[in-house]
Every structure is written in C-alpha cells, then in structure tokens.
Amino acid sequence: MRTPIIAGNWKMNKTMAETKAMITELAPKVKDANAEVVLCVPYTDIQTAKRAAKGTNIKIGAENVHWAESGAFTGEVSAAMLKELKCDYVIIGHSERRQYFGETDETVNKRTQAALAAKIRPIVCVGETEEERENGLTEKVLERQIVEGLKGFKSKDFDKIVIAYEPVWAIGTGKTATATDANTTIGYIRHLLAKKFHKSIAEKTRIQYGGSMNVKNCKELMKEEEIDGGLIGGASLKPDDFAFIVNYDK
Ligand code: PGA
Prior knowledge:
Elements: E1 5-9, H1 16-30, E2 36-40, H2 46-53, E3 58-62, H3 79-84, E4 89-92, H4 95-100, H5 105-117, E5 121-126, H6 130-134, H7 138-149, E6 162-165, H8 179-196, H9 199-204, E7 206-210, H10 218-223, E8 229-232, H11 239-246
Parallel strand pairs: 1-2, 1-8, 2-3, 3-4, 4-5, 5-6, 6-7, 7-8
Helix pairs in contact: 1-2, 1-11, 5-7, 7-8
Bound molecules: 2-phosphoglycolic acid (PGA).
C-alpha cells in the first residue's frame, strides 16, 4: 500500500514571518490527515518552517540541492547543509529549474544521488511541455527523464524516491490534465518503472500529480488509482486551500 503524499511547493514565495504565520494557521487544519503532509519552502524559510512545524505532522522540504559536498558553487546549497536543518524532503528537477536554470536529466540524477546519500527524500519531477505533447512525444520524453534521471538507483532507493508527474503546460496555468489523462500517464510511468527497473519498484514508488491541482479538482484526481498524491504550487500558499487538498478524503 502506498501512503498518499500531498506536498506544497512554495517556489519563490513567503518571508520568514509569513512562513511562521502560514504554518501556525495550517497545522491544526491538517492534523488528522491520512496523507503525508509536506511543505517545500525557500532555503531562507527552512529553519523557521521546521520550528513552526515542530510537534505537528507537517514535514519540511527544500526546493533544490546541489550534488557536490562543498566547493566553489556560488549560490548553491549542499545536501549536508539541508540535513543540518533536518530537511525531510527536497524537490529535484522541477520544470522551472529545467526551463530557466539549465537543469538536465544528468544533473537531476546527481542531485538525487546527493539527497539520498544525506538521507533526504527526493521528489523527482518529470513532465512534458505543451509542444512535446502536441507532437506526440509525451511517452518518449517521460521515458528519457525516468531512465536517465533515475539511472543507477536500486530498490532500496525507491523506498525514498517520490516521483512527481507535472505536465509543464498545466503548471501555474489553471489548465489541469483531466483526472483520466493524469491517471493514464502516471500509469505509463509506473509501467516504465516495471520495465526499466523492477515490478516491485513500480508497485511501491509513490507518483504524484502536479499542475494546477486545487480545491476544485483534487478529489477527482485523488480518486484515480495510479495517483498517489499531489505537488501543489499556487494552492499551497493559502492555508485553507492547502488544508482542503490535504483532507481530500474527508
Ligand atoms: P501549480 O504548480 O500548482 O501552481 O500549477 C505546481 C508545481 O509547479 O509544482
């Protein structure tokens, strides 16, 4: 059985004061959740978020991590630094990083290795662009992202790795994949995991949907058999909206 995971991705939003206020308001609203609850926040908010979430069921994550242990990488943050802050999760390979910051499947692989070595759970993002979808390339792109991005990982690594399927055309646009489409594509990713890795890996790996998931569509999406949770951008910035999504089954 896969435990559903609802994770917020705050992107470049919220100051420390706003972080504290949001988590203080959110915590009582999600305390009885059946899903695992995670908030991935900017580096500067991690410590505040950890403190505000102490004693609650909210886990805290980062939005990226560098693969090197230390060194001349101006502006980057290592897995050991995140571990020191007791980060539980880290998002890797988000489409905004792929689009604006030159993220590749190879760097996704290296960052995932670094996270796992530090015992931080990676949320590895995959997904096709609108153009790729229109050209019928969705499956090919996903195959490349999964095979290259997760190359070399073993069964025990997949106890920690979460995959987020986020069609790029659905992110922040208000356009959501239909529940049926999202389910079919996530089913395809699971099929890939079985084919390229192992059937047991396909069965145990949690795969989230992400892209304009909100209070209106979360119940429908979460009803689908293959969808094990959500990676939520915009709607994770508002306590009531995020709590509603977390409590989708209530
Ligand atoms: P969105 O973002 O929910 O605002 O579409 C999702 C994401 O980018 O992870």
